[in-house]
Amino acid sequence: MKPQKIDLFCQVVDNYGDIGVCWRLAQQLQHHVELRLFVDDLTAFQRIEPQVNSSATTQRVQNTQVITWSAAHQCLPAPVVIEAFGCHLPEQYSRQMVNQTELWINLEYLSAESWIESVHALPSPQANGVVKYFFFPGFTTKTGGLLRPTELLSVTREVTFWQRLGLTQAPHTDKVAFVFPYTNAPLDLLYQALAAQTESWSVLLAATAPAPSLLQQQMLPIYRLPFMAQAQFDALLDYADLNLVRGEDSFVRAIWAQKPFIWQPYLQDEQAHLLKLQAWLNTTVFDAATQQLIYQWNTNELGLATLAEALQQLPHWRQQCAHYAQSLQQQTDLATQLLAFCSQTGQKTVK
Ligand code: TRH
Predict the structure, then answer these.
(1) Which atom, in ligand 1's list, is nearest to the CA of 251?
(2) Catalytic residue among 7, 234, 241, 248, which?
């Protein structure tokens, strides 16, 4: 059964990763199926997509039907339902699924840990009588793959692009770093290392990042950005010479930008994020120095000399990132895998 209609549910737990992933996925799926995206927090959604009307119960946003969580009970469930990151579906909607839904998928968080392969695509019968399948994104062919953009965005030295970001023109330094960190990232070290390079660097600092001190602003040009639409965010990842990213969504998108990047995973109890980080590093083609640099960025062990040295070797770092992205490109992307999974599995579970 080729799916015709899919309902995708997104609950915003924290930050922007949940809606960031769901919006990306929705935009890709809507080319193939009639898609409804149910979101519980339109204010967060509006920040990454300004076309969203935060008070509309239902609306079309770039060809995707967007419905608020509270209006879900008025909708007859689709044959395929995807809940993102184990969010709990609205109760009444969930009860109605029994006669309507052939396939229920829980799209899980991304991880490179090896256990993912053994649980990806496993079924689990649910109280409402519908079987739920666990769909794990990942970095190997035994997982659900990664969300992949259909094209890279060529930014654009257009003045209007920069004006929307509050800049009069593109930064005029030799190189640009785009910085989207968690608050505990060693930014002072980064600024010092960038300022010490022979080539001149400027920093484009995401709206959520800690404000630079006066001293830091004297080291190099730091442009504080407004909160941007996700498409602009992506364009900057493609434009920058170095990307500092975090969480899940900006991390994956930074891989495709094929630029040197450092990933800061979302902090978890008992240092679980470091296990995730190491598991991912083990799957990469990065040399030991690059792996160590990324790891130490997250443990606050990184030395100024190590970072400065890596920046001096930027073309080599960039080459590694390009190879890495090219090797991952051999894998089928997440949206394509999800659709194929629906075709194969929906058939089997149909009553
Ligand atoms: O916001 P995050 O820290 O999200 C996190 C992670 O996804 C984490 O895995 C999850 O468990 C936690 O939330 C609850 O980082 P992430 O995943 O990179 O998502 C950020 C999104 O915000 C991404 O889609 C880009 C978007 N964004 C914009 O569109 N414009 C902006 O100006 C900024 C700063 C972000």
Answers:
(1) 18
(2) 248
Q: Decide: 96 in ligand 1 pocket, CB within 6 A.
A: no
Which residues lie closer than 8 Å to 20 by C-beta, 6 or more apart?
A: 48, 230, 247, 248, 249, 250
Q: Say how many Å lie between the CA of residue 209 and the centre of ligand 1.
A: 12
Q: Is 17's C-beta closer than 6 angstroms to any atom of ligand 1?
A: yes
Instruction: Kindly list the domain boundaries of the chain, sorted by start residue.
Output: 5-148+332-345, 159-328
Q: What is the mean pLDDT of the chain?
A: 94
**Ligand 1 atom 6: the closest Cα is on which residue?**
247
Query: Does domain 159-328 fall into CATH 3.40.50.2000?
Result: yes
- CB of 242 closer than 6 A to ligand 1? no
Residues 255-296 have pLDDT tens digits of 999 999 999 999 999 999 999 999 999 999 899 999 999 999
> For the residues 147-153, what does the mean pLDDT come to?
83
CA–centroid distance, 55 to ligand 1, in Å, is 22
Question: So what's the architecture of 5-148+332-345 in CATH?
Answer: 3-Layer(aba) Sandwich (3.40)
How large is the average pLDDT for residues 196-210? Answer: 97
Average pLDDT score over residue span 135-161: 86
Local confidence band at 5 (pLDDT 50, 70, 90 cut-offs): very high
Q: Are 4 and 33 in contact (CB under 8 A)?
A: yes
**Which band of pLDDT confidence, cut at 50, 70 and 90, is reported for residue 243?**
very high
The CA distance from 311 to 317, in Å, is 8
**pTM strictly above 0.90:** yes
Residue 115's contacts (CB-CB under 8 Å, 6 or more residues apart) are none
Residue 269 near ligand 1, beta carbon < 6 Å: no
| Ligand 1 binding pocket includes 164 (Cβ within 6 Å) | no
Q: Cα of 255 to ligand 1 centre, how many Å?
A: 15
Which residue in the block uniquely carries the two structure tokens 């190099």?
220
Integer Cα distance of 79 and 70 in angstroms? 20
Q: Are 33 and 3 in contact (CB under 8 A)?
A: yes
| % of the chain at pLDDT higher than 90 | 87
* Rounded average pLDDT over 9-26: 96
Q: 159-328: same fold as 5-148+332-345?
A: yes
